[in-house]
Amino acid sequence: DTAVSQTPKYLVTQMGNDKSIKCEQNLGHDTMYWYKQDSKKFLKIMFSYNNKELIINETVPNRFSPKSPDKAHLNLHINSLELGDSAVYFCASSPLTSSEQFFGPGTRLTVL
Amino acid sequence: QQQVKQSPQSLIVQKGGISIINCAYENTAFDYFPWYQQFPGKGPALLIAIRPDVSEKKEGRFTISFNKSAKQFSLHIMDSQPGDSATYFCAVNSGGYQKVTFGTGTKLQVIP
Questions:
Q1: Which domains occur in chain A, in start order?
Q2: How many domains, chain B?
Q3: Nearest Cβ partner of A103 from B32, B44, B97?
Q4: B85: how many CB neighbours lie within 10 A of its CB?
Q5: Do A42 and B100 touch (CB under 8 A)?
Q6: Which of A22-26, A42-46, B18-22 is predicted with the least confidence, judged by mean pLDDT?
């Protein structure tokens, strides 16, 4: 019954590796997002997709590439991981008829 | 540039007291002002939200006060309880692309 789910919940990896985080929502929403929350709890939008189309792309390094195979899924692939990428990454979704965002449980990424 | 400024950064309130968190914004195009609540290890969740056509909205112990001319809004938690201990984020958005910009967060601790 989970509305917005993410896998994995924890991800520990070495610098330079490539990793992916998966997100799925079963709410029927058209818009999905990726947010990054740093160690100071600051929450910043990275990307937004509306029905598989990229509509928001904030100033994010090219090493980050979102992919939306369908409107229920939004995955985040990160190349050449750096120490500064360590953070909690949240997926979220929202319907077109509302501004409320529904967040997933987060993926804590630790780059060693 | 920071589009929404939130204060205080942290707040300690005794059980039964009133918790007040403030936010100020700059862009008059914003038309949706939500507050999100985040418990440790969880994603943020919508707590209460207001549109600029009203000056106050109350839901249970939670009230948003909105001052359009001052471009400020605040969250009041009446009869604060230890279960309210969490990080609170104000946010703003202008609806169009449903891009939400979050404040820097306030860590609230309610002590018995």
A1: 4-111 (2.60.40.10)
A2: 1
A3: B44
A4: 17
A5: no
A6: A42-46
